[in-house]
Write a structure and sequence with these properties.
This protein is an alpha/beta fold. The chain contains 3 helices and 5 strands; from the N terminus they run αβββαβαβ.
């Protein structure tokens, strides 16, 4: 017979002080790194335009280059031989401007078109004396 007094088992308890310390550190970290909706930015006031709107639109000459490297000027296919021949075609098709300004040459090249084909159009524009040149792009709708 065992007459010793049995010690009662103590129930384990969770010490909450380290848990609270960790949560306070996380809370402080989140408060410090949070970005607010009001940003500090430059305060500028843009000038107001007082100009008369342009009455007529700037003339454009569109040169299309498809993925196979074929050319079209203002949606009319042309056979390419060399940049000089392409320059003659550009001068023939170029719209006449009463003010004597050259039209803007818009190069609309397919993304898969050979690079040399686009360079050929730029060389033809230089040979034709067209100094106003731009590239047509398309915005990415799937952002």
């Amino acid at each position: 017979m065992d007459f010793r007094r049995k010690k009662g088992r103590e129930e384990p308890e969770i010490n909450l002080i380290p848990f609270i310390d960790v949560l306070l550190v996380i809370l402080i970290f989140l408060m410090v790194t949070t970005t607010y909706s009001k940003y500090t930015e430059l305060q500028i006031s843009l000038p107001k335009a007082q100009a008369v709107p342009m009455a007529d639109r700037v003339k454009e000459l569109r040169v299309l280059v498809d993925s196979e490297g074929e050319y079209a000027i203002n949606n009319r296919r042309i056979a390419y031989e060399n940049p000089l021949q392409l320059a003659r075609e550009l001068r023939i098709v170029a719209p006449a401007d009463p003010r004597g300004k050259d039209p803007i040459l818009v190069i609309a090249a397919d993304g898969h078109a050979p690079h040399q084909r686009v360079v050929n159009v730029m060389e033809a524009a230089r040979l034709a004396g067209m100094e106003r040149l731009t590239f047509a792009t398309q915005s990415d709708v799937h952002r």
